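Summary for the steering committee. The consortium agreed at its last meeting that each partner would contribute one worked example illustrating the joint modelling workflow. Our contribution is presented below. We chose a case with several input lines so that the handling of multiple components could be demonstrated. No manual editing was applied between input and output; the record is shown as generated.
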Amino acid sequence: MIDALWGWPPPVLDPAGPYAAKVTTLAWSLFALGVIVTLIVIAALWAAIKGPPRVQAMLGGERAIWIGGVAFPGIVLTALLIWGLTLTATLTDPIEGDEMRIRVTGEMWWFRVQYLDDQGRVIMEDANEIHIPVGQPVLLELESGDVIHSFWVPHLSGKKDMIPGRRTLLLVEADRPGEFGGVCAEYCGAQHALMGFVAVAHEPAAWREWRDARLARLAAADGPIETELDIARTAADNSFDAPADALAIEAERAGAISPLPVPVATGDAPLGRRLFMDVGCAACHRVAGTEANGLAGPDLTHVGSRLTLGAGILPNHLGTMMGWIGDSQSIKPGNRMPSYDMLSAEELEAIALWLEQQK
Amino acid sequence: MGRMHRRARWLPGIFARLAKAAVLTACACISACKDPVQTRREPAEGAAARGLVAIKDAGCGSCHEIPGLDWPKGRLAPSLKGFDDVGLIAGQLPNRPEVLAAFVRNAPLVKPGSTMPPMPITEQEAQDIASYLYGIDHD
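What follows is the complete predicted structure of the assembly.
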């Protein structure tokens, strides 16, 4: 899992871009200054107790208080305040106006993601995941659909509040490819702690490929609504050889989840599609190219290619998808989606399978 | 008065004799029986620790409550509390480590019709998870 808070070095001290680097510099400077002040205080304390009488008298005098207690902190803290405020101001400035724009809307308790074209029109929708190219600043338009949230990817930048009725701006830039965890950083209700997302930075060419594939998928969905889906499943390599390296491990994992050597009678994706429309999913979720057009919940057009489920909290595969649909209230109590435990196992698996095919 | 005195003296004697008989019988029983059959599997420490990590990474908790996993505690599928004392795996399969590992990785293959779908884990991870599950101690 991609976690925004854990790991080593901790994400807050491991910048993956120029904006986060500034914040990291500020953080280390504050830490170093704190250490210096603490050492001065300890030294003064030691001198006041054990030092020669002359030093003791000096430390006990009024002058020491004016210098050490008023002038020194006044100057240091004022300088820090000015430096800190000007530095955080540069996290959203200057905005040239030609940056790629992504609108991220905080919802209880997930992130709605909309990619905008240069006219500000929405060209693709997603949720809980932003994909950006390496080496160029991306302007995030932060909004809220309900209460105050805060957008924070420690690897990429500082925090920025998402305020109902307002649009706040934040620049992010990655200087290396990777998957960076993000969280909501402003308490926003019962499941605030389980409101996460992932920022994925691609090399520019790979990012364009990713975008074009998505746009092609959407263009294909633009025609008449598809009614039958081909779910031909090819035979799987299900060998149980010991993995040789990380790539082999990935391949082995993938081999275990995709098609099985024995056909699974219950893995009926067309049935899943019908159920998705019939049992209520479509009322809240949109899947481009189908009659599902709900806007209350996350857009599921590309849900099968997402890294996580439940807003950055679970790995995404058939099993977790079934678990989430069937009983999301045990996993994330109070979230807006009801548990669909009135469905049978076959029906759950069919819906999950169909959703996993929505790449 | 005298009779009661006599009774009071021989009563403890009876108890002592009974106690002695009981102790002897118990000793005889214990020495006659074998040690209770050891059914509990003791997995390797490292395997179980790796198993818990694999469980977290694969998101098993989405459906199962698993001791040692704080969150999530899914209730869609059976709780695995006390799994060390379970009889048949999934109520159907022989309770052997290799069967459990195979089931964890690819349930529909070993138990056709299983609700549990195949999991994106390696065979080694499946074995580690089996080790962890056998090591659950919830008595």
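Chain B has a mean pLDDT of 81. Chain B touches chain A at residues 56-63, 72-77, 105-106, 108-109, 112-113, 115-124 (CB under 8 Å).
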